[in-house]
Amino acid sequence: MTSTDQQPFLSVRDLKVHFSTEDGIVKAVDGLSFDLLKGKTLGIVGESGSGKSVTNLAILGLHDRDRTAIEGEVVLDDKELLTASERELERLRGNKMSMIFQDALASLSPYHTIGKQISETYRKHTGASKSQARARAIEMLRRVGIPQPEVRVDDYPHQFSGGMRQRAMIAMALVCDPELLIADEPTTALDVTVQAQIMDLLKDLQQEFGTAIIFITHDLGVIADIADDVLVMYGGRCVERGTKKEVLRSPQHPYTLGLLSSMPSLDHPVDVPLNPIPGSPPSLLNPPTGCRFHPRCTFAEKVEGGLCSTEQPPLEVTNGRGSACHLTADQRAEYFSDLAGSAAN
Amino acid sequence: MSSTTPLLDVSGLTKHFPIKGGFPIRRTIGAVQAVDGLDFQVAEGESLGLVGESGCGKSTTGRLITRLLEPTGGRISYRGQDITHAGRKQLAPIRSEIQMIFQDPYASLNPRQTVGKIISGPMEINDINPAGGREARVRELLEIVGLNPEHYNRFPHEFSGGQRQRIGVARALALEPKLIVADEPVSALDVSIQAQVVNLLQKVQRDLGIAFVFIAHDLAVVRHFSQRVAVMYLGRIVEIADRDDLYGNPRHPYTRALLSAVPEATVRDEGEAGPERIRLVGDVPSPINPPSGCRFRTRCWKATEKCATEAPPLVQVEGNKPGHLTACHYPETADVPATVPAPRLAKDPEAAA
To answer: Pick from A213, A251, A341, B206: most CB atoms within 10 A?
Structure first.
């Protein structure tokens, strides 16, 4: 799958996550595959309900097993995670793989000091003493750019600002030098200037530790800044993947193209109205037949025989590049060229 | 600004929220200086964008204009009429001309009322009976905002986020307002839906000639929607200008930093120079105890003694076009790229203090 012969560090194969609810089965993730190399960043883009967070909770084994049907394979460094016992997963979580959540205030315990929360993870996985763990917590806070870490280590989360809380979360996630870091919309709740700081910090830390990062976001601008490879999700499926340059410069799927051209940019001509994607995201309880994007797709009628509404287009991937769409290469070249031109600028 | 009276004229607008404390007698021990001396005008049919980071007072400003909050000081006049401390009765006719669109389309619609009831609510309150009846007017409004008029009897939960925001727009339009204050109207929506709502608001503004105060943190959306833009920082306007001047020739260091922090969905080749990137260190200071002088000085790479002692006035600095006001002692110049000695944070935590 990958262009190099390097062994992927994380490999996800045909992952399916289904929840059973009173109204029926919700197919939150429906057949997703990807690989991630060490030291690389995979950006997952999608709207709310596209299955991006569910995927990552499945990797970490955080779904309630009684209520969720998970199929497929998730292999982290030769270890199969979906069949692993809770004990094994506990040993991996926070140690080998960890996660940064979107809402830092909700993810930190309000009753414990920042220092205590960071050192708890460290002590559990390394068996370090209290004082060692405290020193480590201070070191981590310093590394993520918290001023006066010796003092702030004894603060409670409410005494930190939004950006500092997110830094504290990053410190906590990285305290055991994990090899896989999953960042679920880590900057969405932050202001742009702070977002830029956090992304620089993640890039620096990745260079230092060689961490593999899965970065989930709905913002293509953030993807352009941080990712190496991009995976675009829609309605629980991957619709397009490739390197950042391939996906953002020459999108192959109408959804990616739609996202790119609906985003206002700082140099978009102001008298030209935006080019939105019509309709709204699908319900996963009762997803559209065939291609899940077809009810909103402007090109669906261009495909012969109404294939889009009857048959699910396969995701064909060569050298890590692929898209799931019935349009032929010629059609794409014809329809996308003018739109892509305006979107890329 | 023409010689005629602007639709909305705000001068020296101030809002301080008192902080109570002390025992046994509770008294005011401080104040959150949410908004501290704003001056701006909105002309008829114009859209003014208010941008800034969280806590800069942009939402408070919106609520002061609509008089949902009582100003601590300053003056708001609407069409020449002073409404700064106007009472309920006096405000009633004006309230129907100034409407608001809220951020959260889930929290701002009553779940127990049908869409028809929600949209006709403002007409009921103001006892307005349009020709053809209220229901016909609601159906017309639904049509304007791109919803099916047949959905008159549905409840909000039957709609998606983008559709709900359209209902909010229809409600704001019900009284044919002259001014709409839109507080982050698209930030709670999915990316693919945001553009739909921005286009709708733009159509409404053009077709009906409604003036907007558009509050948002997304600079690209504001640029797309507003003819004039004011950048706020910690309760004050640091720069205000026509769209092209502000985005093309930002003079205040904060405006410049803010613009450079916006992630753009463009990929550059190896070695290809990107736009300048200015990284501000630290966070916005607390509005309870804002820095003396220029409020941005704690994060500014140009700050000197003068900035700490003297608050820069919002004036047309040298090199600005008329109407382009900047509050800075050392404004940026377009030709000389800003030299930013800002350290990368991971390596210099002290600088973030």
So the answer is: A251
Chain A residue whose CA is closest to B195: A276
What distance in Å separates the CA atoms of residue A112 and residue A163, rounded to the nearest whole number? 19
Q: Does the structure show a pLDDT above 60 at B344?
A: no
pLDDT, tens digit (0-9, with 9 covering 90-100), for A90-125: 889 888 899 998 888 888 999 999 999 999 999 999
Place of tokens 């929506």: B189
Residue A147 sits at the chain B interface (C-beta within 8 Å):
yes
Query: CB A270 to CB B243 under 8 A?
Result: yes
Decide: B147 and B160 in contact? Cβ < 8 Å: no
Rg of chain B (C-alpha set) = 22
ipTM over 0.85: no
Question: Between chains, do A259 and B191 touch, taking CB under 8 Å as contact?
Answer: yes
Cβ of B265 within 8 Å of Cβ of A265? The answer is: yes
Residue closest to B327 by CA, chosen among B300, B288, B346? B300
Q: Check: CB of residue B309 under 8 Å from CB of residue B293.
A: yes
* Full set of structural domains in chain A with CATH: 10-113+162-234 (3.40.50.300), 251-344 (no CATH)
Q: Given CB atoms, is B276 within the 8 Å cutoff of chain A?
A: no
pLDDT on residue B338: 47
DSSP run (H or E) holding B39? strand B27-42
> Which residues contact residue A247 at a Cβ distance below 8 angstroms, ignoring those fewer than 6 apart?
A230, A232, A240, A241, A256
Best probe of the B interface among A23, A166, A266, by most B CBs < 10 A, is: A266
Span B52-99, pLDDT tens digits = 888 888 889 999 999 999 999 999 999 989 999 988 888 988 988 999
